[in-house]
Amino acid sequence: MIQTKLQAVCLLIEERLQIENTEIRKALIDLTNAGGKFLRPTFFFLFAELGDKEKQNPEQLLKIAASLEILHMASLVHDDIIDDSPLRRNLITIQAQYGKDVAVYTGDLLFTIFFDLIIESMNGSAYLAKNSAAMSHLLLGELNQMADRFHTDNTVENYLHNIDGKTAELFALACLEGAYFGHCSEETVGLAEKIGRNIGMAFQIYDDILDYTADKKDLKKPILEDLAQGVYTLPLLMAKKRHPEAFMPYLSKGADITVEEAKIVADLVVTYQGVKEAKAYAKNFTKEALTLIDRLPKGETKKLLKKLTTYLLLRTS
């Protein structure tokens, strides 16, 4: 239903990335085309499909969808700097290839492209302020996660608060903007943001589970990267809650934890049901999203939204 629109998003992003530095341009275009899921534009267009097509502005929708993916890309580039990540989608990261200074400016450049797109597509709309607030929430989620690094007393509540900003906020924005600029009913617009937030929460939890269950080839990034960086995600927090004494000898080492010790911690997370309990959390968020989707107008789009939301479960099942 929306594949052609997603291809158009990809082409628009490539067009906006026509910068003089050919190496950085190529690196960004490669990142765009290297297996990115385009989930945020996908949810955006699916919600727009629920609206009044006669009132829709296709160029406006295209630019907003591209802005969502560009904002996501900018956060990935900056994440890689913070995490010192060598790989992203099986490609060498910009920070690993060109240095952190170049990567910082590259991420900042993507933010400016994001701003250009939303100004062009929604100037004068209250949604300019919504985008600003969403970006602030996203960045605060990342900053709060950084502040919690290597804190052995980190809580599940803190973790959920952080991922609500760093991941769920952008999913919520994508669904909300798709419904609003797609000229959906007020009820659908109200449901869209809640659906997107629940999907985003589930998505991030599943992503964190993969750090403990997937191999390097499947994950397309170094395994146990979060643990090594002192980011204690839900699987670890749930397991540690059950048996703190098993984890403290390793976590108390902070950044000095070795690769072998990290693997031991990962085994403990699985042994003490951390992955199982994290999956239960994610399934609850998914269940809530599906319950809300049931309240959307009947039709093929509603079926696709349910199918896509359910499909995200399959990454760790």
TrEMBL record:
**Entry-linked Gene3D superfamilies:** Farnesyl Diphosphate Synthase
Q: Does the keyword Secreted apply?
A: no
Q: Extract the signal peptide range.
A: none
Q: Which GO terms describe its biological process?
A: isoprenoid biosynthetic process
Instruction: Extract one GO molecular function annotation from the record.
Output: prenyltransferase activity
Q: Does the keyword Magnesium apply?
A: yes
* Pfam families for this protein: polyprenyl_synt
- Domain of life, per UniProt, equals Bacteria
Q: Which cofactor does it need?
A: Mg(2+)
The record ties this protein, via PROSITE patterns, to: POLYPRENYL_SYNTHASE_2
Which keywords does this Swiss-Prot/TrEMBL entry list?
Answer: Magnesium, Metal-binding, Transferase
PANTHER family the UniProt entry points to = ALL TRANS-POLYPRENYL-DIPHOSPHATE SYNTHASE PDSS1, GERANYLGERANYL PYROPHOSPHATE SYNTHASE
- Family stated for the protein in its record: Belongs to the FPP/GGPP synthase family.
Full protein name: Polyprenyl diphosphate synthase
Organism source for this protein? Enterococcus aquimarinus
